[in-house]
Write a structure and sequence with these properties.
- This protein is 33% helix and 10% strand.
- The protein is an alpha/beta fold and 312 residues long.
- It has a six-stranded mixed sheet. The protein has a two-stranded antiparallel ribbon with strand order 5-6.
- Strand 5 and strand 6 form a beta hairpin.
- Helix 8 packs antiparallel against helix 11.
- It is globular and about 60 Å long.
Length: 312
């Protein structure tokens, strides 16, 4: 039985300023039948082939509660850049692949599950565009994990790269267009990301100087998504309107971009200010999702559509 359990994952990611929660109270003891990791010698990145209209929480349920192969990965990345940690022990997602040489030793043939931390990211894998906020979160998360686990960026592998030595072509993930990071997945089509491109972006992230510590201010509370899904989360989100600004407006802007209603490559779209650009994107979203005549506000029905893709 493996003896390495990653019970500090959410603390590490939170300390890095990432938007992170845990799936449930059982995550610290969740693992495959072999228990903890034998050692963590690499990180595996994936897409989960989920439908673009599916609830993000349903992907977590599939990976950690409903699938006979659970747990599938230890971390899930949502389309809006939100991170959910669901398992501290070894998981079932790498399958056949390797062997791979890493800075911490060799990952033996077909043993990725017990030597690699696996991250699943929400994307259909057949051409769905990855938003810039999502890739930002992916890179920030993997860079942080490398630092905390004593890994090098060269120890990060896509599922396709993990399979390459012994069974090339078995997996294509992660794949798909990344307009904000064109060297990764291009701007259209369904290109498999090259490990070297992802690592290059990680290197750039590592070279960025750390910003000075900000002056402490009372934090604005951000609701924690409940385990039951987007509908219940929508019920606890506040009603916001045109002219408002703050973290809730910024969350709405990210969700609009992830749904394809704002340019994900334009960082000015995520300024937390509901101005004319945000207003036109919200009106287009309302029209396509049966939310009636646009009223320049975002209430429970709008939040539910943004979080789950529901059309009224």
């Amino acid at each position: 039985m493996g003896s390495v359990w990653l019970t500090s994952l959410p603390d590490w990611l939170d300390a890095a300023g990432l938007d992170v929660d845990v799936y449930d109270n059982n995550w610290t003891t969740r693992s495959r039948s072999s228990g903890g990791y034998e050692d963590v010698r690499g990180i595996g990145i994936h897409h989960d082939a989920s439908s673009t209209g599916s609830s993000e929480m349903s992907g977590c349920d599939w990976g950690w509660k409903n699938s006979s192969d659970r747990p599938i990965g230890c971390i899930r990345l949502w389309r809006n850049g939100h991170i959910i940690v669901g398992a501290a022990g070894a998981t079932n997602t790498m399958g056949k692949g390797g062997p791979l040489k890493t800075s911490k030793g060799t990952i033996p043939l077909d043993q990725g599950n017990i030597y690699m931390l696996a991250i699943e990211a929400a994307n259909n894998g057949v051409g769905e565009q990855w938003s810039t906020p999502m890739i930002d979160a992916y890179l920030g998360m993997v860079h942080t994990l490398c630092e905390r686990l004593g890994l090098k960026h060269s120890d990060v592998f896509g599922h396709a790269g993990y399979c390459q030595p012994s069974c090339p072509g078995r997996k294509i993930d992660p794949a798909g267009p990344t307009p904000g990071y064109p060297n990764l997945g291009g701007t259209s089509g369904c290109k498999t990301w090259a490990d070297s491109a992802f690592r290059s972006y990680l290197d750039q992230r590592g070279q960025q100087p750390h910003p000075p510590e900000p002056t402490p201010v009372p934090p604005e509370p951000t609701p924690t998504p409940p385990a039951t899904g987007g509908k219940d989360m929508a019920a606890i989100m506040p009603t916001i309107k045109k002219g408002d600004q703050g973290v809730y407006v910024e969350r709405m802007q990210h969700l609009l971009a992830a749904a394809g209603y704002m340019n994900p490559g334009n960082i000015s779209n995520y300024d937390g200010v509901w101005g004319s650009g945000t207003e036109s994107s919200k009106q287009a979203f309302d029209s396509d999702h049966g939310l009636g005549s646009p009223d320049s506000s975002c209430g429970a029905k709008s939040w539910e559509s943004l979080l789950t893709g529901k059309v009224w």
